[in-house]
Amino acid sequence: SFVLYQDQFIERNQAKVDIEDRGYQFGDGIYEAMIVYSSHIFLLEPHMKRLERSAHELNLNLPYSMDHLTRNIKRLVEINHLTDGIVYFQITRGAAPRQHYFPENTSSVVTGSVVHKERSAAQGTRGIKAVLADDIRWLRCDIKTLNLLGNVLAKQKAHEEGAGEAILHREDTVTEGSSSNVFIVQNGELVTHPADHFILNGITRLFVLDLARRLTIPVHERTFTIDELMNADEVFITGTSNEVNPVLEINGHLINGGTPGSIERKLIEAFNAEVEWIRAL
Ligand code: PLP
Fold first, then answer.
1. Model confidence over 175-226: pLDDT tens digits?
2. Nearest 5°: phi and psi at 245?
């Protein structure tokens, strides 16, 4: 398979990263993961906007124009004949002798790769168990950085407990999942944490908020508590590869009797319709 390295497409085993790359030493970089349906990169534009924002928030130089980066991501999909799967794209601040402050004379390092994965396989995992985990991350969770240890440790906890996701909370407030956003349904209305510094503003989150509005399901972007989560009519997570995924059990406590609820089914149906529409393009 081919990977993107800076401005070139090369064999994966030809790609070399400097051991002093700041992505490697400090997690000093940003990324995006995008899903591909029938060779179309889903919601490419908002992903690129978010990438640009992440770069801006970290004062990270983009070595090529956004148009150029976007073209190369599309080309990466083509060159690998990726029909269904994931495109991973990252930019680090580059290689320099190790010191914490920004180096002056280095250029950012761009890499990208793809994973082939059929959507039907992912569909089979719909409906997951979750566990609660302390949100021990920093206070700029709105930036999509490579620093993911807080997320990794939470996901590991979930994995060890046989769950598919860790739902994070700061004290009593539910923030998001370790790699997803969290929604609850109360009396037919959606509630999800507002897009502030405590969560990543998921592209799927935004898309689902849009779907909900189209379906005239009321939405509230406000914080909610662990108690509201556990007593919700429905709970689901959203994310690039999860799409809309019902959470059927949290810490051993069943949600909606352990089956997907009617709002979830409506949103999944609307999501599926969108994917079918893209496939027909
Ligand atoms: N929140 C976190 C912490 C994530 O890592 C992700 C995705 O990886 C999401 C939310 C969902 O974002 P998106 O819908 O853009 O994939």
1. 999 999 999 999 999 999 999 999 999 999 999 999 999 999 999 999 999 9
2. -125, 115
Return the domain boundaries, the chain.
2-117, 123-279
Does the beta carbon of 202 sit less than 6 angstroms from any atom of ligand 1?
Answer: yes
Q: How far apart are CA 246 and CA 259, in angstroms?
A: 8
Taking the centre of ligand 1 as the mean of its atom positions, its distance from the CA of residue 179, in whole angstroms, is: 5
Residue with CA at minimum distance from ligand 1 atom 5: 179
Domain 2-117 has CATH 3.40.1180.10: no
Please work out whether the CB of residue 50 comes within 6 Å of at least one atom of ligand 1. Answer: no
Active site residue 16: no
Interface predicted TM-score (ipTM): 0.99
pTM for the whole structure: 0.97
CA dihedral 26, 41, 10, 81 (to 10 degrees): 150
Distance of CA 216 to the CA centre of its chain: 25
Fold entry, domain 123-279:
D-amino Acid Aminotransferase; Chain A, domain 2 (3.20.10)
Query: Is the CB of residue 242 less than 8 Å from the CB of residue 181?
Result: no
pLDDT digits (tens, 9 = 90+) for 172-185: 999 999 999 999 99
